Amino acid sequence: MTRSSDLPATAPPTPGRSRNMAAIKRRDTKPERAIRSLLHAAGKRYRVDVRLDLEGARPRPDILFTRAKVAVFVDGCFWHCCPEHGRQPGVNAGYWGPKLERNVARDRAADEALRAAGWTVVRVWEHEPRDEAAARIIATVEAAAAPDSSGKPK
Ligand SMILES: [Zn+2]
């Protein structure tokens, strides 16, 4: 039925592939949601997707505890080059290599800017067990909010 002259000159990506890419790109990723609900169940209040305007960077942490000044990022293994799953040699390295290096450089710049502004940064890999990641975040928030770290009574 379809005449070949109707097809675009450049073939679109296969449906399977574009569905994968959409899933990877979606901001509210599954591990992030799971961790948020664990934090919520633990009675922690947080904000999401707040862009901070800092000296040298404008990071947008995935989860933000504004009072304790703790910024949490849930990093995807591929996009942020996790040491265990980050490198996939052969997967168009010439195209992805520089992109991923820029991502990592941006991550480190964000960490520095946040710390310089008095924030505690917690980075969680998407491959980490959700409950362990949540426990780590909660411990960090509680330590940061502890009376002796700020010198103020609770
Ligand atoms: Zn990983």
From TrEMBL:
Gene Ontology terms, MF aspect: endonuclease activity; hydrolase activity
- Has UniProt tagged this entry with the keyword DNA repair? yes
The annotated region (Disordered) lies at: 1-27
Name the SUPFAM superfamilies for this protein: Restriction endonuclease-like
Q: InterPro entries, per this entry? A: DNA_mismatch_endonuc_vsr, Restrct_endonuc-II-like
User: What domain of life is recorded for the organism?
Assistant: Bacteria
Q: Name one GO biological process term.
A: mismatch repair
**Keyword tags:** DNA damage, DNA repair, Endonuclease, Hydrolase, Nuclease
Cross-referenced Gene3D superfamilies: VSR Endonuclease
Pfam families associated with the record: Vsr
- Describe the family membership recorded for this protein in Swiss-Prot or TrEMBL: Belongs to the Vsr family.
Full protein name: Very short patch repair endonuclease
Give the species this sequence originates from.
Streptomyces hoynatensis
